[in-house]
Each structure stands twice: as structure tokens, then as C-alpha cells.
Amino acid sequence: MAVGQGDGSLADIAGTALILAALDRPGVSFQKYEHHLKILALDLDAEGGQETSASARAEALAATLYDRHEYSGNEDYYDDLQNANLMSVIDTRRGLPISLSILYMHAARSQGWHVEGLTFPGHFLIRLSGAGPMDGRVILDPFNRGGIMDARGLRQLVRKTSSSDVDLKPDYYQPATDREILIRLLDNIKIRCLKVSDMGQAINILSRQVLIDPEEIQHHYELGMLLAHVGKDDSARERLTYCLTQSEKFERNDLIEQQVINTLKSLDKQTHEARGGIVLRLPEKE
């Protein structure tokens, strides 16, 4: 079942991120983290809950999250898995751009402010709106003290995080749904797990991504291929067979489809040789 509404929005993005974090910290009390989210909301209300301009709201957010609660980016240990676990982020006050952004978004929404994540590449940012059309909009970087980003800063950031000398593009300013933000948060964990060959946890993360966004075929494909890699043949076969029934969602990527077919044939060959079983019949393409 997908997380959120049909448009990918969530009533409580930080609460959902805490639930995901709790899956990797069994036995840890959930109550103090929920309480902390309430404190952030109360403190922002006291700091500037009545502000109307986007810039004044941004200052109030930074004063609450950075100055008062000392949230900032973990530059020294950027690749630490705990930077993407919201419970750990609350404990240490250090995190990734996206995990810190979730806390900023939570606080802003607690005041009824409109805030959204952006699809900016390589470094997650948020956009905060004022109360009305004349109150402006600003882009914030929660990783760097919640500062307001101007065009020059954005250009420097995209060049820092890109392997090529590229300029700003309209796509970078597109809003990300809450569901997409959670998927991107989990991507950070998945990538770090794969870097250290922690296949078991990478499979756990991919399984969560499938539950959060079941319509995205890429999650099913990656999960199936990884299951095949670690020898969980039956689970891999089930997932990859499903992928073939949804092959139109591969966006005409014949290479991925062929990889799925080849992997299924390989799995079937292994099973046939080991058990003398029945050869797998691949689903017919329509």
C-alpha cells in the first residue's frame, strides 16, 4: 500500500520518517522523539509564528532549528548511515540535507506555512512561501544553518555536487512530493549500504521503498536483482516476474527488460539443474 495521498502528500512527513527510523532501532522509545517534534513546533511559534514574509519566516526557522536546537549538517561524517535516520538526527543534531529538511518542513507546516522540498540534484533544499503573493518565496539550505540561497549560491552548489560544469535548470526547482522525499531519504541509506556490501540492509530498504511507492517499477527491479544476487531465488523470481508483467513502466528501456529476462532464465536454469524442476514459463508480452 502506498504511503500518503494520491498526490504523494503526507499529513505528517516527520512522523512517517520517525516510523521508518524506528524499524532500524527496535526497542527504542518513540515517545521522546514525538515530544521533540512538538517542542520544535512550539518554539517556532514563539520565535516567529506570526511572520508573514518568506524571509522573516526563514529567519525564524533558522533561529529555532539552528540557533536554539543546534541542528546542522554533518560535514565531518557525511556518509554515516545515522545521518539518514531521523531518530539519530534528533539525538545528535546532525544529519544530511534531506533529513534536516524534513525537520524544517515539519516545523514550518506546524505553523500552517507552505513549504516544499525541491528536486535539486545532489543536495536537498526546501522552498518556503510567505503568507500571500506579495510576501515572496525563498529557498533554504537546512544543511548550512538554514540559510537563504540566492542564484549565485545555487550555481555554486550545483557545480560543487555535479561532475560537470552545468548551470541551473528549471527542473531543479520542481517540487518533490512527500513520498518522493521519503524515497530519496531511503536512497541515501541504500546507497551507503551497497557501498559497504551490506546487502541484507539494502534489501530491507528496497522493501520499504516498494511499500511506500509500489507503482514505481524501478524499486521492484532493483529489489529483484539484489535478491537474485544474494541467492534468494524464489523471492527474486517472484519480484522479477512481476516486473515483466509491468514492462511498459520501464519507459522503453529495453536493456533493463532484457536484464530481467536473462536473470529469470538464469534462476530457472539453476533451479532446474539443482532440483530437476519445471522450466519457468515467462509471462507473455501483450
Automatic annotation (TrEMBL):
Q: Locate the Protein SirB1 N-terminal domain: which residues? A: 32-186
Any single Pfam family the record assigns to this protein: Transglut_core2
Q: What is this protein called?
A: Protein SirB1 N-terminal domain-containing protein
Origin organism is: hydrothermal vent metagenome
